[in-house]
Amino acid sequence: MSDLVFFSGTMDSGKSTLALQIGHNRSARGLQGVIFTRDDRAGEGKLSSRLGLVTEAVEAKEGLDLYAYVVAVITAGGRVDYVIVDEAQFLAPDQVDQLARVVDDLELDVYTFGITTDFRTRLFPGSQRLMELADRVESLQVEALCWCGARATHNARTVNGVMVVEGAQVVVGDVDRAVDEIGYEVLCRRHHRKRATSATAHAASLSPDVLPVTPG
Ligand SMILES: Nc1ncnc2c1ncn2[C@@H]1O[C@H](COP(=O)(O)OP(=O)(O)O)[C@@H](O)[C@H]1O
Ligand SMILES: Cc1cn([C@H]2C[C@H](O)[C@@H](COP(=O)(O)O)O2)c(=O)[nH]c1=O
Question: Does the predicted interface ipTM exceed a cut of 0.90?
């Protein structure tokens, strides 16, 4: 029985690393997969992890029919044993339906990886459709942490270290950007609600208002 699996987690929780590991373990046993990605930080047609590993992938551009692509590979004499999709939050809902068809009609396992919610805590359309259709939704074992030490559950977008709540849903970026660039920071829900990033929390702790009063 084949499955559509959605591995979801915050940014920086090891999703791309796991995608690469799943692909590696299968190819080490002679299996062949199709790897899709969309808007990876490393560039078009790349699946990259912060651990430094990167592999070639098919860019799942807007309008690419993922089911038709896999069928075309098989029709051309290629072998497909499984499908991996990274940055799956960026897929259109139709493309997720096409992946479900790959599972049901071609009887292939499809492993998808992505963040569920955007910087405003709203579901990405692709992630919403995955949660609706997936046979299994799996959380990553290596949890990312908020600056306070709690488990990070949400993704904040930052400019100069300050959390912003206006802007386009999709802005490709990373968690370790220079302060003057648009960046991201993972936070627990409490600190996402309070818009308290590590930079603003650090600044507040240094503020004279909250410094302990010393006698004399
Ligand atoms: N220098 C490092 N040493 C060990 N682990 C690292 C290092 N840099 C990044 N990582 C690990 O890589 C994870 C991010 O991996 P990645 O697959 O790129 O995440 P995601 O795809 O979820 O954004 C981090 O959570 C951390 O566990
Ligand atoms: C929260 C949020 C993120 N993004 C972008 C930023 C990155 O390019 C990817 C997530 O990649 P990762 O491998 O999980 O780190 O998504 C975005 O476009 N909009 C957002 O709201």
Answer: yes
